[in-house]
Structure formats: C-alpha cells, structure tokens
Amino acid sequence: GLADTLLAASRSGAPTLEELAAIDVPVGVAAFVDDPVHPVEVARVWAKALPRAALRTTSLEAVGADREALGRAALCAWRDACGD
Questions:
Q1: What is the largest CA-CA distance in the chain?
Q2: How many CA atoms lie within 13 A of 11 on its CB side?
Q3: 58 in helix, strand or coil?
Q4: Which of 27, 47, 54, 63 has a 20 to 30 Å separation from 83 between CA atoms?
Q5: Measured in whole angstroms, how far is the alpha carbon of residue 71 from the centre of its chain?
C-alpha cells in the first residue's frame, strides 16, 4: 500500500502559503534535516506561514536507530505550538 499512497500524494498539490496562514490551530511540523526528497527548508517556510506552528527536526539516521523519532519530533513541535 505504501507505493500507492506515495503515488496518490505525488498527484495532489501542496497547500498554498495563504491556505496555511488561514489555519488557526496549533500545528506541529516535523522534518528530516537530511532528506533530499522533502527539503527541510519547505518545512521551515510552512511553519513560518502557519500562525500557530512550531518546527522540530530529526534525521533519517535517527529514525533508522529509533523508528519513533519522527513521531516524537512532531508531537514535541505540536506541544511547542500549544505553548506547553
């Protein structure tokens, strides 16, 4: 199912910065600093566009050693965005 999911995702457009700016709930953004397919700079731009966002990063190497690293980064970013 992963290949089908990735194929479907590649066909859909990303939200615009204006659409992101209209989201008024806490958002945790997590990104890999070493992912050439999904550049961390995009995550930084999105986090800046979202009014109530925080960004946390991890690495592909970290996920290789601990598969929960990305989820933990996302949860920590969301908590940061909530002010916790």
A1: 37
A2: 6
A3: strand
A4: 63
A5: 10
**The tokens 């999911």 sit on which residue?**
5
Residue 69 DSSP one-character state: H
Q: What is the 3-state secondary structure (H, E, C) of 2-35?
A: HHHHHHHHHHCCCCCHHHHHCCCCCEEEEEECCC
Q: CA distances (Å), 63 to each of 16, 76, 80, in order?
A: 29, 15, 21
Rounded to two decimals, the pTM is: 0.83
Query: Residues 17-64: pLDDT tens digits?
Result: 999 999 999 999 999 999 988 899 999 999 999 999 999 999 999 999
Of the candidates 75, 81, 73, 15, which has an alpha carbon nearest to the alpha carbon of residue 53? 81
For 40, other C-beta atoms within 10 Å of its C-beta total 16
53 and 27 in contact (C-beta within 8 Å)? yes
Distance CA 5, CA 73 (A): 22
